[in-house]
Amino acid sequence: MAKTRTVIGVFSSEDRAEKAVGELRHSGFSDNEISVVGPDRGKGRQHGDTGATMMHQQLGDGATWGAGIGGAAGLLASAGALAIPGFGPILALGPLAATLTGAAGGGLAGGLVDFGIPEQQSREYERKVKEGNFLTVLKTAGDADRAAKCLRDEGASDVRID
Prior knowledge:
Layout: E1 5-11, H1 14-26, E2 34-39, H2 54-58, H3 63-66, H4 71-79, E3 81-84, E4 88-93, H5 95-102, H6 107-114, H7 119-130, E5 134-140, H8 144-153, E6 157-161
Antiparallel strand pairs: 1-5, 1-6, 2-4, 2-5, 3-4
């Protein structure tokens, strides 16, 4: 069995992160592998509004993203809107959203650690999101190098494979 690896890229805008998600999907990665987290800048999103942005459309109607999460937390996470105490509102989609829902007390960095990202990197990623950036995170047993190339090709900075 192939080892699961985590690929992370930092994007300066939601639009770039959305485009990267589309490219990852086009390259054969599944919705169950792809997560996005970033600041929720409003754009009219409300809890339960799964069609507010292209990203929501790309990532499905919430059924795929909410699968396995369960309960009301899954519905909230699939909608993309989360509030992290001491951090504020964030947009979170994919498997990482479920982890962040359960780790709200530890902030964004704590949720990233719970998702398997080393603590020092998690704190750096939290800082980058506070600065207005978006993270695209892929957990895959597939070709991590190909995923990293997709992220770089779409303009990601600080692409890492763990």
